[in-house]
Design goal:
globular, two-stranded antiparallel ribbon, alpha/beta, 9-stranded mixed sheet, 11 strands
Length: 289
């Protein structure tokens, strides 16, 4: 378990207040200040900037608080695993919830216990991993590799899809169409925005933009109204095959993006996650299509 001074630093990082930290920990305000000062003196580091009645953590202080929070989460889970079989909290991004997630959960069913599965966009999943609310997530969006570790699961084709009646022949033509796009924070939107930037475009260059949080809603709406979207091909494979939607191919537009199992760096359970990933890949590759 963590030294109580580190626990105090973790709470202080959330509150940015000696008074509120004291209330959360049921100790006095001077005790909070003394613990932080003691930690600074021991480490010979400046962790907190005191500005009259306001305080905030230095960059080093925030990094130490984040690390201490991770150690606390991990140590508690390790202790629990010594008493009972470990239960993992898992997250998954919306774009993968109807394709990869069912297969992965089925694979996990006789290997580990999953107590909850949270389905949110990439930013939410990553934040919940930071906060210890989930242990790992299936993520298609980008993430900070200095903060998170990962194991590769598969690649997905990212394609442009249109209403079947639209006639579009060049990439420039798409900007005159209604764009149906995920909300900020989603992995698929991030991927699309990054690609647009390489072409010196941005989302605001489209004539009309509709932000919709659900990939399934985007797909259903696109069947009904003229418009386009950029989405993982596996989500619309059936609609492309039966002619309900149309896949658009443009010169120079070819995006493949990796899908990863993501977790906090230096996790005690890294080997467990690697075993799950390896066995899933072996099982997937053994299927004959």
């Amino acid at each position: 378990m963590l030294d109580k001074r580190y626990q105090t630093l973790v709470v202080l990082a959330d509150t940015n207040s000696f008074t509120k930290t004291a209330q959360v920990l049921f100790i006095t305000q001077p005790a909070v200040s003394q613990q932080i000062t003691s930690l600074e003196n021991e480490l010979n580091l400046s962790l907190v900037i005191r500005d009259h009645n306001r305080i905030h953590l230095t960059d080093i202080g925030q990094k130490l608080a984040d690390y201490a929070k991770q150690v606390e989460f991990e140590s508690q889970k390790v202790l629990n695993s010594l008493k009972t079989p470990t239960k993992f909290n898992m997250g998954c991004t919306l774009s993968l919830s109807s394709t990869l997630l069912p297969k992965f959960l089925n694979h996990l069913s006789d290997r580990i216990q999953i107590s909850t599965t949270e389905i949110k966009n990439t930013d939410h999943i990553l934040q919940n991993i930071r906060d210890g609310k989930i242990d790992f997530g299936l993520v298609e969006g980008n993430f900070d590799t200095t903060e998170f570790d990962s194991f590769f699961l598969q690649k997905e084709n990212f394609v442009c899809i249109s209403h079947q009646q639209l006639d579009i022949s060049t990439i420039e033509d798409v900007f005159n169409q209604t764009l149906l796009i995920r909300e900020p924070g989603s992995g698929s939107r991030n991927i699309f925005e990054n690609w647009l930037a390489t072409q010196n475009y941005k989302i605001s260059d489209f004539t009309k933009v509709m932000e919709i949080a659900s990939p399934n809603t985007i797909i259903e709406l696109l069947k009904q109204i003229p418009g386009i979207t950029f989405i993982y091909e596996s989500l619309v494979a059936a609609e492309i095959k039966n002619g309900q939607l149309k896949k658009l191919d443009f010169p120079g537009f070819k995006i493949e993006h990796p899908i990863n199992l993501v977790f906090l760096k230096n996790s005690y359970f890294k080997n467990t996650y690697q075993e799950l990933t390896t066995s899933f890949l072996q099982e997937t590759n053994s299927i004959t299509y």
